[in-house]
Amino acid sequence: MNCVNKVVFLGQMSIAAMMFPIAANASETGGHAGEAEHGPHIVELFLGVTSADHNGHSQQAGSVGASYRYAFNHTVSAGVLAEYTGGALDDWVVGIPVVFNLGHGGWQGTLMPGFEITSNHEEPLFRVGLGYEFEFDGYSLKPELNVDFVDGETVYVLGVSLGFRF
After folding, report:
1. Which residues does UniProt assign to the signal peptide (predicted)?
2. SS (H, E, C) 23-37
3. Which of 75, 134, 149, 162 is most buried, most CB within 10 Å of its CB?
4. Cα separation, 84 vs 90, whole angstroms
5. What is the CA angle 107-110-113, rounded to 5?
6. Are 83 and 92 in contact (CB under 8 A)?
7. Phi, psi of 154 (to 5 degrees)
8. Which letter does DSSP use for residue 56 in this model?
């Protein structure tokens, strides 16, 4: 997949991801954009470990990442994510996460189209995740488990995000 096709693909996915929250927000608030309790902007820093099974060999490495999301309402937020995994895996994951608050507790589900980028190749991926956000005064901590489906393989990413709202 060449660079132009990737940009078009991510653009299409971001438009699709944005349409649902905007429509849901309009029906919930009478057409006016709602704000989360502490502001609609969310920045998260991630620290964790990635475990992948490549050709029968299990590999694990540390991961760091950052994301920005905009909360359309209390239920849905969407944005951009970049995550680097070092060591033997040595790759980047970039994508457009759509995060859903599940109920009134701290549970959050994530759906994310994106790409895994290594020195040799670039592959489309789809991430599914589940986390629980603990809110504190001015920040949040969210232990989370993400599962990436890429090139016929399943990659597990376990870690914690430190979040800030403004």
Report:
1. 1-26
2. HHHHHHHCCCCCCCC
3. 75
4. 7
5. 180
6. yes
7. -115, 125
8. T
Quote the tokens at residue 159.
């870690």
> In the prediction, which pLDDT does 56 show?
78
Q: Give 51-58 contacts, CB < 8 A, sequence gap 24+.
A: 51/155, 51/156, 51/157, 51/158, 52/89, 52/153, 52/155, 52/156, 53/153, 53/154, 54/153
Given a contact cutoff of 8 angstroms between Cβ atoms, the answer to whether 62 and 46 are in contact is no
Buried-state track 42-67, b at ≥16 Cβ within 10 A, e below 16: bebebebebbbeeeeeeeebebebeb
Task: Spell out the alpha helix ranges (H) of the chain.
Answer: 3-29
- Of 138 and 76, which is predicted with more confidence? 76
Give SS3 for 145. Answer: strand
CA distance 82 to 101: 21
142 burial via Cβ count (<10 Å: 0-12, 13-18, 19+)? buried
Q: Which pair of structure tokens corresponds to residue 75? A: 């239920």
Q: How is residue 5 written in tokens?
A: 């096709």
Query: Does CATH number 2.40.160.20 belong to domain 3-165?
Result: yes
In the chain, where the domains are located: 3-165
What single-letter DSSP state applies at residue 133? P
